[in-house]
Amino acid sequence: MTSKTDDNPPPYEDALHHPKYVNDPRNPQHGSSLPPPPSYSPSPGPPGYWAQEGVYPPAGMWAAPGHSPSGDMDDFLSSQWESTSIRHAFIRKVYLILTAQLAVTFSVVAVFTFVEPVKMFVIRYPGFYWASLVVYFVVYCILVCCKEPRRRFPWNIVLLGVFTIALSYMTGTISSYYETTAVFIAIGVTAVVCIAVTIFCFQTKVDFTSCGGFLCIASILLMIIGIVTAIVLSFQYVPWLHMLYAGIGAIIYTLFLVYNTQLLIGNRELAISPEEYIYGALSLYIDIVHIFLFILQVSGAATE
Hints:
Blueprint: H1 12-17, H2 73-114, H3 116-124, H4 127-145, H5 147-151, H6 155-175, H7 180-203, H8 212-235, H9 239-265, H10 277-303
């Protein structure tokens, strides 16, 4: 991961025609099927996050512009424009789906926070939380591990909708245990973090897509820290220890948000295929919700 003096990111055309990995023998050839995106396995509460490096389809290989045997300039410019327009349409579709997901999630959080009977119901009957966790995990595995359901309409939308409802219920249930002030603080800080990350990813030349291995190690360390913290807090609640763990988790998930956003943009070393709009929305959605949950733990411990 290196940074250059120019603050503007490389144009899509440069990334499409001169990828860094063009000589990598692992790259798929024309006509071959794209490899599936990586998977990560979240756990209840502060979920763990797993990433596998190097399994995304390389940027530009899905369109292969600039490899026309005729060498005709008009064909070159036409394919160049087509590739850029496809990527832009893909980004718009992902953010449209993501907006709908976040609207559902934070609407559920608002209901579980402000409507007292609903708040007391979800606290009194935790079995619904564990049921939603099972649905969340099963649908997540289907979307990440199975290419056909993830790409086939309308099943991909149906599965993503079920996943969104399940995670929204889990998020709302967790939020119901915190004061309204802590929830408001968490929502505000999460919004600021997401906007800052998006602006950073579209403006910087720093490439986070080559840091999948580091993020995988960070997620493992976060899981270990979470287990140790849970054991310690089960004997005696230590607010600063809880806040420290939640702060580390928020930072790690922010790095994952940067990573997945740059995969979405597509002008870095690695990129996600435009066919994977469901996976793109799923990745960003999980990152944002988990950032919110970690920040909620920090603000909740601070306001106690």
